[in-house]
Design a protein that fits this description.
mainly alpha, 9 helices, Chloramphenicol-sensitive protein
Length: 223
């Protein structure tokens, strides 16, 4: 059986996802009326129903059920899910927050460095082997990273948070055997309390701003 159609489809989907990923990162800077935290909140709120529908259509709901049962069967499993949700949540928040706060290039550098840190974690933690072609690819990637670091001459905290945080997140999911779409669904669901809390604070701040703006405008009219 030929695997060429699957390979071509995989490459096409990968490129499409990368383009959409870049567009989503770029348009956040155009949403000037929304703070990065609010954009992050809306992203989570809109992602969960879409992800739920996708899991149901693909027939992968059993993965969600298996993980749900583990909450009652394993003593510290809930804590690992909270940690996993926090690790991915901080990454998704940073992705939405950075463009409007002048850290866009630093975040891009972090994503550029992340594959190398993933390779290191895979090699050390899981004893994964690489082919010669993969080793050559890593060498070129390292050279590209060194070139970027030499030109920028700085390594900001968003860069480190991404290139170090994501490998820890994926390592945790691998170790807890939740490295599937069901695990991602629980990560999104467990972040909802934080999302709602941040959204309520944002709405309260906007109401206070509007009231102050209206009062200030009324005083100007009296003058």
């Amino acid at each position: 059986m030929s695997t060429h159609p699957n390979t071509a489809l995989g490459i096409s989907l990968n490129v499409t996802a990368s383009v959409l990923f870049a567009l989503m990162f770029a348009y956040t800077s155009l949403l000037g009326t929304l703070a990065g935290t609010e954009i992050y909140g809306w992203r989570i709120v809109l992602t969960i129903p879409c992800l739920t529908l996708f899991i149901w259509l693909k027939g992968n709901w059993s993965q969600v059920v298996v993980i749900y049962r583990r909450f009652y069967q394993e003593r510290f499993f809930f804590l690992t899910r909270i940690l996993s949700s926090f690790l991915i949540g901080i990454q998704l928040w940073l992705f939405m927050w950075a463009p409007s706060h002048g850290y866009g290039l630093d975040v891009s550098l972090g994503y550029f460095m992340m594959p190398i840190s993933m390779v290191i974690v895979g090699r050390i933690a899981f004893k994964e082997q690489m082919s010669r072609f993969q080793q050559l690819s890593c060498i070129f990637a390292v050279l590209g990273i060194l070139n970027l670091l030499a030109s920028s001459q700085t390594l900001a905290w968003p860069t480190l948070l991404i290139c170090l945080g994501y490998p820890i997140y994926f390592w945790l999911r691998q170790k807890t055997k939740t490295n599937n779409i069901g695990g991602l669904w629980f990560d999104m669901m467990l972040s909802l309390p934080v999302v709602f809390s941040l959204s309520c604070k944002a709405v309260s701040s906007q109401k206070a701003y509007l009231k102050a703006h209206i009062r200030f405008g009324s005083f100007q009219d009296l003058d």
